[in-house]
Amino acid sequence: MGMNKSEIIEEIAAQKNLSFKKAEEIVSTVFDSMADALKAGERIEIRGFGSFVVKDYKPYTGRNPKTGESIAVAPKKLPFFKVGKELKERVSK
Fold first, then answer.
1. Number of other residues whose CB lies within 10 A of the CB of residue 9
2. What is the domain extent for residue 15?
3. Longest distance between any two alpha carbons in the chain, whole Å
4. Whole-structure pTM value
5. Among 80, 21, 90, residue whose Cα is nearest residue 6
6. Do residues 8 and 28 both lie within one domain?
7. Rounded distance, CA 67 to CA 1, Å?
8. Among residues 34, 31, 33, 5, which one has the least CA distance to residue 20?
9. 48 and 91, same structural domain?
10. How many CB atoms within 10 Å of residue 23?
């Protein structure tokens, strides 16, 4: 299936013999710091894991799939993750 934030917290708490609350504080701090950096337009690189950047998308004309009507889609910024070489190799083994 997958791993959610609570499961990550539980795993860190178990591996490092921390309380759930302390592990939760650590994970939240890391995620909040990453979100703040991306919001500020910064690039995040975690060696051996990958990098996060924000990509700018220009406006375009889309279509409503139900009605076929043309819709103007506004420009937007979205986070993008590029997997690192080491992680790619670990997953593919």
1. 20
2. 1-40
3. 56
4. 0.79
5. 21
6. yes
7. 34
8. 5
9. yes
10. 20
- Cα–Cα distance measured from residue 6 to residue 10, given in angstroms and rounded to the nearest whole number: 6
**Residues 35, 77 within the same domain:** no
Amino acid at 55: K
Q: Which two tokens stand for residue 21?
A: 């609350």
Identify the three-state secondary structure at position 29: helix
Q: Clarify whether residues 17 and 34 are in a common domain.
A: yes
Domain count, the chain: 2
Report pLDDT digits (tens) over 47-80: 999 999 999 999 999 999 999 999 999 999 999 9
Q: State the residue for tokens 């650590």.
A: 26
Listing DSSP states for 37-58 in one string gives HHHTT--EEETTTEEEEEEEE-
Residues 24 and 68 in one domain: no
Radius of gyration (C-alpha) of the chain in whole angstroms:
18
